[in-house]
Amino acid sequence: MMEWQPIETDPDDGALHLRGLWVTHNRTGARWWEVIAGRVDDTGDFVDHDGNSPWRKEDYSHWAPIPEPPK
After folding, report:
1. CA–CA separation, 45 vs 71, rounded Å?
2. Closest to 5 in 3D by CA, of 43, 60, 62, 55
3. Secondary structure class of 58 (helix, strand, coil)
4. Could you tell me the pTM of the whole model?
């Protein structure tokens, strides 16, 4: 079973991981959990799977390994 870990324990090893954060909408106060697959590159920056995430490495609060695909 996949379990979320505190971001401080992320190995930053260049492997693809899931990263999650709570987002709060500025105007409405709506809150949601957002998950992005990505990795930390050679410069130490977080690069998401498609290059479109508005979040920075320091925005994420949790990480998890990518689970095995269904069989």
Report:
1. 33
2. 62
3. helix
4. 0.79
CA distance 51 to 71: 28
* CB distance 14 to 39 below 8 Å: yes
For the chain, the residue count is 71
What average pLDDT does the chain have? Answer: 87
Contact, 37 vs 18, CB < 8 A?
yes
Alpha-carbon distance of 4 to 44, in angstroms, equals 21
The tens digit of pLDDT for each residue in 8-32 reads: 998 888 889 999 999 988 889 999 9
Distance CA 71, CA 68 (A): 9
Taking every pair of C-alpha atoms in the chain, what is the biggest distance, in angstroms? Answer: 42
